[in-house]
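Methods: example folding runs. The two proteins below were folded one after another, and each record is reproduced exactly as written to the output file, sequence line first and C-alpha cell line second.
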Amino acid sequence: MVGPRGIVAAGIASLFGLELMKQGVKSAELITPLVFMIVLGTVLLNATTARPFAKLVGVFQQDLKGVLIIGSSSFSRIVAKYLKENQREVVIVDNNPSNVKLAKQMGIQAINANIYSDDLSENLELSDMGYLMALTGNASVNQKAIENFSGQFGEKGTYRIIFLKR
C-alpha cells in the first residue's frame, strides 16, 4: 500500500521552520506553508494527469469486459458458461465448495469464499472486471455483494436478482 509521503516532508519542514524561526532566520515562517502548497500541488497534478498519461502510454484499460458472479448455482454456471463462450472473462465466487467444484469442471474460474469476509475484495484480482452479477438465491447476500463492490463497479456495473414476495 502506498501511503501519503508528502506528510513526512511537511512534518520535517515544520520542524526545520520552527528551528530556523528560533534562530531568527528571516522568512523562516514561510517554509511550512510553502511545503504544504508543494505537496498539494503534486497531489493535484498526479490526480489530474494520471488517467491521460496512462492512456497515452497504453496502460489504461478502457473496456473492462470481465464479469464477477456471486453465487455458483446451476443458473449462475449457465450464465457464466454463456459469457465465457462469448469471450468474456468470468470469475465465480461462492462459499459452497461443491458448487465451486462444478463450476471449475465446466472450465470456469471459481473461488470458494464468503461474501461476508472482510478480506474478500483484497484477495480478488478485479483489475479487468467491469461488471458484477449477484445471482445467489439469497437477497441479503446479493445486497451485501452490491454494497461490498459498488466502489469497484459503480451503480451501472452491478446487477442482482431481486426476489418479489407473492
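Second run, written to the same file directly after the first:
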Amino acid sequence: MRIFSWNVNGIRAVWNKGEFKKFIDHYQPDILCLQETKAHQEQSEVDLEGYKEFWNSAEKKGYSGTAIFTKIKPLDTTKGLPDDIAKKYHMEDVYGDPIKEGRIITAEFEKFFLITVYTPNSKDDLSRIPLRYKHWDPAFLEYCKQLEKSKPVIFCGDLNVAHKPEDLARPKENEGKKGYTTEERQGFQNFLDAGFLDTLRLFKQGNGYYTWWTHWANARARNVGWRIDYFLISSKLKTMVKNADIHSEQMGSDHCPISIELDI
C-alpha cells in the first residue's frame, strides 16, 4: 500500500497546470492526502476514476482545506477535532478558529487511522506561536493518542515546522523565525516523545531532503529548502513501513509530494 501526502497550494491551480493528473498517472497512489486545497469539492474539476473523495474545506473561500482521495473505502471519516478536545484547548485566536479552516480529516481503515493535517502557520511576526504551542499542537497530540487507544495512527501533512538543523538548508540564518522556533520544534518533538516515529528518518539521514522551497532566488533548483511535510506513525507500525520518500521531481506546487509504503 502506497500512501502519499501533498500540499498542493491550490488544487484548482495544480489541476489546471496539468501536474495533478500527471502525478496520479505516474504514481497511482492507493491513498492520497492533500493539504491547502483552497477550494470546496464542488469547485474542483478533479474526478479520478476509482477514487473516493473526502473533503474538509475552510469556511473562508480560497483558503486552507484538506482532502483524502482513496482507492480503499474507509470504514469511517471525520472532520476536525472532537468537540471535547477543541473546547479544552480554546482554539480560537485573533485570526479566527483553525477548526473552521478545514485543517484535519481522519479516515479509519481496518488496521489503522489515517489523518491528513494542515498545521496553522505561525506567521512572519510569530503572532500565532501561542496558538501553535499552547493550543493546536497539544490538542492534536491528545487526539492522536486518543485514537491510538483503538488502533495505530498514521498522520501526514504540512506541519509547518523544520524539526532539526538537517531539516532545512540554512538553519543558522533561520533560527527563531517562523517554522524554526524553539516552540514549534518542541511541539514536533512532543510527538516523538509520545512514541510516534518520523518515517523518513527510518530510511534516510542527513540534510538535503526538503519538501518546500520559496519561489525566490531559484531556491528549488538549488535545493535551498525546508522539510516541513511529514509522515508520522505509531511505533506498532514500524516493521510494516517498507519505504518513505520525498518526490521533489513532481512540480505544480511550492511543496512536493511525500510517501510511505506499507506492507499491511
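Comment on the second run: The radius of gyration is 17 Å.
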